[in-house]
Every structure is written in C-alpha cells, then in structure tokens.
Design goal:
The complex is a heterodimer of chains A (468) and B (189). Chain A is an all-alpha fold and 468 residues long. Chain A is built from 17 helices and no strands. Chain A has a single domain, classed as Up-down Bundle (Cytochrome C Oxidase, Chain A). Chain A is 76% helix and 0% strand. In chain A, α3 packs antiparallel against α17 and α12 packs parallel to α15. The N and C termini of chain A lie far apart (49 Å). Chain B is mainly alpha-helical and 189 residues long. Chain B is 39% helix and 2% strand. Chain B is built from eight helices and two strands; from the N terminus they run ααββαααααα. A two-stranded antiparallel sheet of chain B has the order 1-2. Chain B is globular and about 70 Å long. Classes of the chains: A mainly alpha (468), B mainly alpha (189). Chains A and B meet through α4, α6, α7, α8 and α9 of A and α1, α2 and α4 of B.
Chain lengths: 468, 189
C-alpha cells in the first residue's frame, strides 16, 4: 500500500504541489518533437504515393527515384525512425527527468543528439532514394548511417541513464524500467540486425534479420510506447496506476518472452521446423505481458472513463491501448501454423503492422505530444477542437485501412491456397481493397496534417509571446 | 531480489540483460550450430532422394543482377520461398510439374537474402528458366503488355541498359535451379 502511495504521488507530482519544484528547460524535448512531427507529415506524403501506386501503377512510373521499390524503404524507415522513435525520445526527455525529480543530465548533449538524429534522417532520405539499400528489411540504411545511429543511441542512453543515476526518488516508476529496457535491448537488437547480419548468409542471415525486425517492434517500440502509456495514462486521467505488482509481471515477462519469436516470420519456409515451433510457442506466450499491461491500464481508468469524452490525449491513449490489445492478439494467432498458411505474405500483414505502429504506438506518441506541448512551451494548446479533429481523422482513416486490408488479405490468402486460380486474378481481385486503402490513407494524412498544424501554431504562439 | 529490482538501477540492468540474452542466444547463435544444413550448399546425386543437382556460387554477372534486384526493391513484392504448402508447390511449379519446397541449403550463397515477407507479385523462388530473355525485356518495359491487370512498375531504365538487363536476367534465370526439378529439362534461356 505504501508503494502505491509513492507512485500516486510521483505520477501526480505536479498537481500535488511538490515541496521543491525542479525547473525543466525541455530544450532537447522540443527539438526532438518538432523534427519528428515534421517527418510524420513529410513521410506521410510518401505513404500516400505508395498507396496510390497500388491503384494507378503507372503513376510517376518512369522516374527511377520515385518507384515503389525506392519509396517503400523511405516510408518504413522514415515513419519508424524519423517520426516514431524520434518522438518517443522527445517524450522520454520530458518524463524521465520528472520521474527522477531532477533536471536532465545534459541539455547540451541532448540537443547534439537531436541534431545528429536529423542528420541521420536527412542522409537516409538521399541514400534510400538513390537506391543505396542494404537489402534487409528495417535495416536498409547503409553501414555508415548505422554507425551514426549507434553513436546517437549511446548519446541518448548516456543522458537518460545519468539522469536516472542522479534521481531524487529511490524507487523507479515503471516508465523508467521500460525506458531503460528499451535503451539496453535496442543496442543489441540493432547491432544484430545491422551489423551481425553482414557476417551471415542465407537462412542464418534471415534468422538474424527477423530477430531484429520482430524486436524492432517488440523491444524498441513496444517498451518505449508502454513507458509513454504508463506515464501519460495516470497523468491525463488524474488517477494513480492500478497495480505496481502487475506492471512488474508485465515488464519481466516481456523481457523474457519477446526475443524468442523471430522465426515466426518464416513459418512453413526454409528454416528448421523445431525453431519454427519454438517461435510459435513463445509467440502465444506474448499474451501474458500484453494482457497484464492492458488490464492494468483499464483498471487505472476505472471511474475516470467519462474524461475520455473531453480529453484528446486520453482519447488517443485509450484507443491506442485497444489497438495494442488487438494487434497483440493477432500476432500470436498469426503464428499458429493453420492461420499462418492463410494470412502470411498477404495484405493482411500490412494491416496488422499498421495497427501496431500507427494504431497503438503512434497514438501513444501523439497523445504524449499533445499532453506535453502546452507544458514545454508554457502556452495553451492552439486549438482543442482541431486536436479532436486530428483524432477522428486518424481513427476513422486508420480503421478503414486496417479493416479493409484484413478482409482483403484474408480473401487473398484464401485464393492463393486454391492453385486453380491464376495469380494475376488474385491481384486484380484486390483492386477495390486498395482503392479503399488509398482513401483511408488520405483521411489519416488529414489527421497528421491537423496534428502538425496544431503543433506548429502552438509552438509559434509561444515564440511570439516571448518576443513580445 | 524482487524488492531491489526497482530501487537499484544496477541490479535492474543486469536482470534485463540476462533475460534478453537467454532467448537471444538460444534463437540466433545456437540454431546454425545445431542445424548444419543452413551453411552446407545443396548437393544430391541420388535421384531416389529427390531432385538432383548442386548449388554453385554466384558468377560476377549474377552478383550484379542480384545487386540490381536489391537496389530496385524487387524483394518488397516478390518472395523467394516455396513453402511447405501444397498451393506453393503448385504455384511454383511449371507445365504440370510441382516444384520441390525450398530448403535452407539452396540459399547458402545469398547475401542479402531475398526470402521476403510480402507477396504482392508472384513468388520467384523457382522462376529460373520459365521465361526467355525476350519475355523479360518486354515485361520490364511495361509489365501490362504481357500481363494485363499487373500492378508492377515499369523499369525502362533497366530494359534499355544492356549491361544491367543482361545481369538481372542472368540472376533471375538461376533462381531455384540448384535443384534440377523439371524432368524435361525444358528451361528457357
């Protein structure tokens, strides 16, 4: 009971009127957020182009740098590293010092990290469009950029760990565990996926590649996303976290289970059957960390659900939690051999992947951004109505995208399993699905645009005020 | 122990890494040591054991073709694995002959591997020798001329560049041919 009290005070620190208020400058946080939200918008344009190419394959077809094969890695890497990871880092620079009750260890180092991150993303755009693609999914960036990513990650990790080492509160809140876990695991997962793979070939290389691809989501975006949700759900709903013990079970089961599952990307494929079976068993076990975490979030909201109506960050957070629950139910189910035989390699998979990265983790990141924005700039949010619009655009567009791709992908898999249907007929059959996906994409992009506009208008109003 | 884990950052870091490395090691470092077929090139001279043949290293020209395949992102839409599914062996088959399933020993020289995760176009693990060079040239110029309804982008800058075109076709024509699976030996050049 006593520890519950500590967490409650800590998560409500600002409202409870702490004895000595630490002044946070948040410069690093601002820079990371400004650049990540901009990339969200720019890479969103690439996303629309890709969706359009499924419907109009001749579109920009004779310009080599704008073909599907060049734009797709730009979309994936841009969204994962330019938008989501950068935004997550920006939010970590906000909540870590607050949970520790001290200022960030070094704002200078933080700003340098933000600068380096921008150099990496902009160079990646040039390299990927030029076709300098390493040929491995999620690890497309050429080696020299991989090295810069490692340097930036060490700079980020050092800053966060030193802040935690200097903390005022002895007990570490769950968001801090997840953040530290992310920093540690990402280092090894990234090195495996970008460096170790270069020394392997064939199936061995593929196995390392899928270990990285799976854990880029499972041990990078999941833990940092959950850190954000664990921090902002109690904050935005003004309620203490339901259970400290349950969050421990969720964290340590995730730490143990996630890394085993890489081979489920090659079910039925040319990789040892026993390894496939291990990956399946552990994929099903993923339900344990997911359900404990989701139960904890829902229980925290008990009695507070009415707040979702008015509170935009909370809307994004709780929708994100539902998407997280759904996407993490799909994952273990896909890894069952019978289900996999239908959905694997189909359009169902991008439906699933977008629900994880957009529906769950980007929603958490957007929620966090809306929450911290007025606080780091010390002004009112430019428009709450516009923020609400951005939610509904992303929600309806997202649902349209996910649901049509699941239905379409399932149908496609069903057709593939009937070899009397020629392959090209299964392509033509999906045209209506891709048209709906394109228009859903337009809606999602409208959501991103309103989000960006609201963000920039808020930031600029702060600038205008300080100048006056 | 459990009580120290969230108050002592050093204990926490140690525990988080131990948890991660158990699964990490057992699923990445150990499997290639246990299953040697991952690194032994395919070779079979005994017809009673399935298709005969031998996996050869890539030639310089094929390597160039593979690099073009990587550069243009062909692998985002074309997988290269005939899975242990009946439909896959039929779809990868040719003229009534079912294709053998892909095995790890057929991919020993592949780097980067091209197994793929998404099948927007057909699987290419057994495409070698199915279509002749003229077909590929027309297809790269505009896929819809040969396959109405296709959504593959045109690649005129490859079709019109003789060196690149020859290299890419050389690469495609060897895919899946380590196993000599077509009894009539009716491979196109």
């Amino acid at each position: 009971m006593e520890e519950q009290q500590v967490i409650a005070e800590k998560t409500q620190g600002s409202t409870a009127g702490a004895v000595t208020r630490t002044v946070h400058t948040d410069t690093t946080s601002k820079w990371f957020l400004i650049s990540s939200v901009s990339y969200f918008f720019i890479v969103g344009i690439v996303a629309i182009l890709l969706a359009a190419k499924f419907v109009w394959p001749e579109l920009l077809g004779t310009v080599s740098v704008l073909t599907y094969g060049r734009l797709r890695p730009l979309h994936v890497n841009g969204m994962l590293f330019g938008w989501l990871l950068a935004c997550d880092m920006g939010l970590a620079f906000y909540y870590v010092p607050r949970l520790c009750g001290v200022r960030l260890w070094s704002e200078k180092l933080g700003c340098a990290t933000a600068g380096l991150w921008n150099i990496i993303i902009l160079s990646a755009v040039v390299e990927l469009l030029a076709g300098h693609n390493q040929g491995l999914e999620y690890a497309e960036l050429p080696s020299w950029l991989d090295l810069l990513v490692v340097v930036a990650w060490v700079m980020f990790g050092l800053n966060i760990f030193m802040t935690i080492a200097n903390r005022k509160y002895t007990q570490m809140y769950v968001s801090l565990w997840y953040t530290m876990g992310t920093i540690l695991w990402t280092a090894f997962v990234y090195l495996t996926g970008n460096l170790a793979v270069l020394f392997a070939t064939g199936v061995n290389q593929a196995n390392l590649n899928w270990m990285y691809v799976h854990n880029a989501v499972g041990l990078i975006f999941t833990p940092v996303g959950l850190a954000i949700a664990y921090y902002f759900i109690p904050k935005a709903s003004n309620a203490p976290l339901h259970s400290h013990r349950l969050s421990m079970i969720g964290f340590w089961s995730l730490a143990f289970v996630y890394v085993w599952t890489g081979a489920h990307h090659m079910l039925h494929g040319p990789i040892s059957q026993w390894l496939q079976t291990i990956a399946i068993a552990f994929s099903v076990m993923l339900l344990i960390p997911v359900w404990t975490v989701v139960y904890n979030f829902f229980a925290t909201m008990k009695g507070q659900w009415h707040m979702v109506r008015e509170n935009v960050p909370l809307k994004f957070l709780m929708s994100g939690v539902v998407f997280y629950l759904l996407t993490c139910f799909q994952g273990p189910m896909h890894s069952l051999r019978t289900v996999n035989a239908i959905v694997s390699k189909t359009d169902w998979i991008p439906g699933h992947a977008h629900m994880a990265v957009l529906g769950a983790f980007s929603f958490f990141a957007i929620a966090g951004t809306y929450y911290v924005l007025p606080r780091i700039f010390n002004v009112e949010l430019y428009s709450n109505a516009l923020a609400n619009w951005s939610y509904w655009f992303l929600m309806i567009g997202g649902l349209g995208f996910f649901v049509t791709l699941w239905l379409g992908g399932f149908w496609q898999g069903w057709q593939w399993n009937n070899p009397s249907i020629p392959f090209i007929d299964t392509v033509v059959a999906l045209k209506p699905v891709w048209i709906v996906r394109f228009f859903s994409g337009i809606l999602m992009f409208a959501g991103i645009t309103t989000f960006l506009y609201n963000f920039m208008a808020t930031a600029l109003s702060a600038k205008g005020r300080s100048a006056a | 122990m459990l009580n120290r884990i969230d108050i002592d950052a050093k204990v926490f870091v140690g525990a988080a890494l131990v948890m991660f490395f158990i699964g990490g090691t057992l699923t990445t470092v150990v499997p290639p040591m246990v299953d040697t077929s991952w690194s032994k090139p395919f070779e079979n001279n005994d017809p009673s054991k399935g298709p005969t043949g031998k996996l050869l290293p890539y030639t310089e020209q094929e390597k160039k073709g593979h690099a073009i395949y990587v550069r243009e992102g062909c692998w985002y839409c074309h997988t290269q694995q005939t899975r242990t599914l009946l439909a896959d062996t039929k779809r990868s088959g040719w003229r009534g002959v079912d294709s053998p399933v892909s095995t790890p020993d057929e991919f020993v020289y592949d780097s980067p591997h091209m197994f793929g995760t998404k099948r927007t176009g057909p699987d290419l693990s057994r495409v070698g020798g199915k279509y002749d060079q003229q077909w590929h040239r027309t297809h790269f110029k505009n896929p819809r001329d040969l396959v109405p309804g296709s959504i593959m982008p045109p690649f005129p800058w490859i079709a019109n560049n003789e060196e690149e075109f020859q290299a890419l076709v050389a690469y495609l024509q060897r895919l899946g041919r380590a196993k000599n699976w077509r009894p009539d030996n009716d491979y196109e050049k």
